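Input record (Table S2, row 420):
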Amino acid sequence: MRYYVLFTFVILLQTMNAQFVANYDESKVPEFDLPDPLTTFSNNKILTSTSWTELRRPELINFFESQVFGKVPGTIDTIDFEVIEESNSALGGVAKRRQIKVTLSKNGKTISYLVLLYLPKNIANAPIFLGYNFHGNHTVNSDPEIIISDAWSLNNEAIGITNHTLTEESRGMRSNRWAITKMIEAGYGLATIYYGEIDPDKNDFADGVHALFYSGSQKRPAKDEWGAIGAWAWALSRTMDYLGNNSEIDKTKVIVFGHSRLGKAALWAGVMDERFAGVISNDSGCGGAALSKRRFGETIAQINETFPYWFSENFKKYNNAEDKLPVDQHELLALIAPRPLYVASAKEDEWADPKGEFLSAYYATPVYSLFGKAGIPAIEMPVVNSPIHNTVAYHIRTGKHDVTEYDWEQYIKWAVEQFH
Ligand code: GTR
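Output record (beta-D-galactopyranuronic acid complex):
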């Protein structure tokens, strides 16, 4: 009997381990059927951009909303914008700086966040990149005027963040991820927000924007409602409510950008809000650009285990059951069509499955073709540092999971071509 218990325990442990050992071997990628973006759930072929827009797009959105990212449970009661700091001579005189407080209210509760905006000085109506930062607006540049957030932060000792508190020590420490000077030189602005002000990145649904929408004694969203990624994506749209009414910004040229978990949020925001003129996914991986059915690197089970609050509760149905998913992430990308989309990977970022990100962009291409737009022309991955710059763009660069100068050089060049 004792041996039997021990034996069962060992088997159980092995199964648990097997479940979470990431596969990095291409020959072990399972065979799978990739859903066709141009065939509806009831098996009708989509032959025109109109039937894509009227039939297929809505059913795919509906699926991603209720089963993956979760629905937003309503609309906000009021939204207020207040410019609390500004300068017409920032970054050594080449840029304008604005810091805008956005206040969202619902059910008598409010939440506020700050948008940091840099605009090229000599352009009346500038295109911009909009993207979240991981550790506070003050980390994106050493500019001493950037206000430090008092919101909770993940610790990161390498950049001087301990006790979940943002301080002077981390000012400018992530400037390597934000090529602001290059953007300004190209005639582009940057709007950035600390994502922790929207919803702190921890397994807690009592804080952040979710709580504004609860009724009665509700403590967490319903199974088909938003997780943290849905919340971050939604607040990008609330930010667009402001940017779209700011005469200093060209509202037809707001490109939403995000790295990693924030790349997942940028993609979802780009899908749900067609006011975003273009979308950039930097190393977004599982639940972002990468195909889930490949089960390479991070899997659905793994991401839902480590970050049980990122997606809707319903998404957990697909833990180790990718075969049951009637969609895959190439269809998320396709939902951005015909707007410009850039997917980028890094060679050493195997966890995010670079090949899965590339194939996803490739398999989204037929939808772009329906609109007469060029996507990824061939199924072979380009070699490192050889970008494909079509309406759907892709590059894989050397190096690790990060946002680098090289990434921004490509994004800026491509944006200038797409939005001239
Ligand atoms: C990892 C997570 C990835 C990615 C990454 C990041 O731990 O597993 O999906 O989101 O974090 O955001 O840097």
